Every structure is written in structure tokens, then in C-alpha cells.
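hey
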């Protein structure tokens, strides 16, 4: 004779959960980053709350990465699993966007195989850091204002050196739970957009906490003439955060692109 618990397990194993990928973007100004935290407003918490209410079932979301407080995402992916999904893509996107806060936007949803994972299936991530060279009231929440002299050629020379290393301990936030500080950087360059904007683009298979902001701050020190481009090699090889430059404000940092292996 089956116990009630055995019957429950038998029924539970028969339930086929469906996995869905979300494509979204968010302005991180009002959020304490992506990941759920106690007593803090986060993007993940906002999405889980609204999805659970909309789908009338408990929803847990897995994101493609962790963004810190104040960091934005122009392209972000997350996945979740549910037993039933009573919407087509067009209706779901329309309804969830009316339900969510104005600083989060859902662009699409697609059912995927259970082996697809928002975080672990990602093979390349691209961040951009935006610097305004001219005071602009419309850019103050999404860029770092700096109008002093910068030697862009030297900053690009120093940035290129990042591609020759994979241990970025010197640019990592201290006391994290990361198993390794190894990252494969495939692109790192500065671009001037007219006379008013400067953009740093960096791509890698993974990033450490605070890594991009610490790299940008260090490269700005090169541009200001406070250190040589060759100093970047010494900083990386030191594997010591105190050797690198300051961390630029989070507001200028965007997760721009995620590439997947499927």
C-alpha cells in the first residue's frame, strides 16, 4: 500500500516543467543590483513577484549574470520553469510590461530545452562603460561625467594588454565567493563618439565583481598621465586590488550583449 507521501512523489515526478527564456532590459538606478537580497529592492525580486502573480504560481528566475547596484542592462536573459504557461508570446510581453515597473522591459519569451541555462550556457558577455565629456542633464544617470584631458591612444594601448592575461585578481572586489578569478578577455577598447562621449567596450567569457569598473578607473589613470600603459602589466601580475586604480561609478556601466552557444 502506498503512503500519502509516496503518492505525492509519484504525482510530482509526472509533472513536466517547462523552461522559458526571457529577453529583457533594465535601468538599474533604483535597484540594488540583479540578485535577490534581504531588505533590498532588486531586479530579480521585482520580476519574480510580478511573474508569480501573473502566472498564479511560484516562479524562481535564474539570471545570466549578477549586476551590481546601479548597473544597467541593455540586453539581459533569464530563465524560469513553470508547469503551465497560458499565454502566447505577444500577449505575455504586452501584459507583463504593463505589470512591471517602468524601468524594466521584457522584449520576448521563448520555450527552450531543459539543458539551456541563462547563466551557464552563455559563452560571451559584453559590457560598455559610458563617459560624458560635456555636462548633459539627460545623461547624468547613465554615464560618468569627466571633461578633463585624456590620452585615448595610451588608454587603448593599456587596454590591449588585458587580452594577454587571464587572472584578474587585481580588478576583483575583495572577499567574494568566486571559485576562480580567471577570465578570457577577447576585446577591450575605447571609442570616441563625437566630442561629447567616450565608450569603453570589453568582452569576456565571464567577469568578476567590480572588474569592469576597476579596469575603467585604472585606464583613466593612464589617460590622465598618472601611470604609463606598461604599468597595466605590473598591476595584473601583482594580483592585488590595491595596485589598481579607483572604481568608476556604477551608473555608467551597461551589460550590452550576451552570446549563447545555441
Amino acid at each position: 500500500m502506498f503512503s500519502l507521501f509516496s503518492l505525492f512523489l509519484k504525482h510530482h515526478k509526472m509533472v513536466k516543467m517547462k523552461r522559458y527564456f526571457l529577453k529583457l532590459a533594465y535601468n538599474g538606478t533604483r535597484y540594488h543590483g540583479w540578485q535577490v537580497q534581504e531588505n533590498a529592492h532588486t531586479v530579480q525580486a521585482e520580476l519574480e513577484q510580478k511573474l508569480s502573480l501573473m502566472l498564479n504560481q511560484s516562479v524562481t528566475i535564474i539570471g545570466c549574470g549578477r549586476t551590481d547596484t546601479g548597473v544597467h542592462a541593455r540586453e539581459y536573459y533569464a530563465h524560469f520553469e513553470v508547469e503551465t504557461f497560458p499565454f502566447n508570446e505577444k500577449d505575455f510581453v504586452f501584459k507583463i510590461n504593463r505589470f512591471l515597473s517602468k524601468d524594466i522591459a521584457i522584449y520576448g519569451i521563448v520555450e527552450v530545452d531543459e539543458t539551456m541555462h541563462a547563466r551557464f550556457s552563455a559563452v560571451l558577455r559584453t559590457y560598455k562603460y559610458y563617459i560624458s565629456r560635456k555636462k548633459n542633464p539627460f545623461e547624468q544617470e547613465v554615464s560618468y561625467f569627466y571633461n578633463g584631458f585624456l590620452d585615448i591612444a595610451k588608454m587603448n594601448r593599456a587596454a590591449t594588454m588585458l587580452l594577454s592575461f587571464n587572472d584578474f585578481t587585481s580588478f576583483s572586489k575583495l572577499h567574494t565567493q568566486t571559485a576562480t578569478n580567471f577570465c578570457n578577455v577577447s576585446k577591450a577598447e575605447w571609442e570616441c563618439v563625437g566630442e561629447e562621449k567616450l565608450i569603453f567596450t570589453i568582452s569576456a567569457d565571464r567577469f568578476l565583481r567590480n572588474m569592469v569598473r576597476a579596469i575603467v578607473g585604472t585606464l583613466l589613470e593612464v589617460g590622465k598621465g598618472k601611470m604609463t600603459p606598461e604599468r597595466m602589466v605590473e598591476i595584473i601580475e601583482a594580483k592585488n586590488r590595491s595596485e589598481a586604480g579607483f572604481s568608476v561609478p556604477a551608473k555608467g556601466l551597461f551589460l550590452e550583449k550576451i552570446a549563447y552557444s545555441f
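Strands lie at 18-26, 61-63, 72-82, 104-112, 122-132, 144-145, 185-193, 197-204, 253-260. The chain has two domains: 16-112, 123-260.
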